[in-house]
Amino acid sequence: MTNTLIQSGTRILGLDPGLRRTGWGVVVAEGSRLRWIAHGVISPPEAAPFSERLLFLLEAVGEVCTAYSCDEAAIEEVYVNMNPSSTLKLGHARAAVMLAPARCGLSVAEYSPNLIKKAVVGSGHADKGQIAFMIKRLLPAAGEVKTDAADALAVAVTHAQLRKRALLEMVS
Amino acid sequence: MTNTLIQSGTRILGLDPGLRRTGWGVVVAEGSRLRWIAHGVISPPEAAPFSERLLFLLEAVGEVCTAYSCDEAAIEEVYVNMNPSSTLKLGHARAAVMLAPARCGLSVAEYSPNLIKKAVVGSGHADKGQIAFMIKRLLPAAGEVKTDAADALAVAVTHAQLRKRALLEMVS
């Protein structure tokens, strides 16, 4: 699902990488306000060779960057305490997803899952349901958002908040 | 170091991925003969942000694909029994390196380290010194080859051999 609402301001692309499903979400930071622009989930064809699945991710995220004229990007860091084979696959998917905004000349900020939960829900131990609930409250125009896209919007919201804080510190 | 010798035939790009050093080697398979074309090592700037180091790999390998008009690519599979943080980083680098030939429309074959050792040295437990020694014998025109590039040439040699076997089976 992809819905759109075009606005001016700094456009932030949030990314929740995965080889089967990569969530993405675009928000615009206008001063202290935050507005939803679009979100979606990218699913590479599972039967395709590995390199083609990665290429699908790279190109699809690249299209999102261009379509929504994103200015900055942010992505979730990865827990490394899962099984090594899953870690390796996720590493590949994450690289393909990061490379898309990098190719468009965007910086790609990285945030730990705990920091994202803390920024969005207020607790580093929040579950996915709580994140989806808060995204709905923070970005009501987004409507019903599936988990992967909600996580991606949470990354974008985190970046908007921490970026704003960094800007305020610069002028104070 | 990069040396070149232009030939006709099927050009195979072998890749040994790494975030600090990615080895590459191009050989041409002409019937049952194998000839060296070029090899080198790519080192992204270590101080650059992570996404930019990945982008450096993607673009540098892409330039190699184009410069040597490669027809097929092959890459080493990754051992997953190392530490999870290293596995994750290597996964990222490997994706960036695989995506370069995929973007050029090339198929990217994957071979396990043991299969490569067996194909080049004759034993799945050969060490890096033995691989470098055999690469020097199989591709004398390559001259002195550093470890990362020797490993990449070994991947290309493996693909040339297994590809040739697959073609022979098709016509028999």
From TrEMBL, chains A, B:
NCBIfam families: ruvC. Keywords: Cytoplasm, DNA damage, DNA recombination, DNA repair, DNA-binding, Endonuclease, Hydrolase, Magnesium, Metal-binding, Nuclease. Its EC number is 3.1.21.10. Mg(2+) 2 binds at E76. It is found in: Cytoplasm. It holds the Pfam family RuvC. This is Crossover junction endodeoxyribonuclease RuvC. Binds 2 Mg(2+) ion per subunit. The active site is at D16, E76, D148. The lineage of its organism: Bacteria, Pseudomonadati, Pseudomonadota, Alphaproteobacteria, Caulobacterales. It comes from Brevundimonas variabilis.
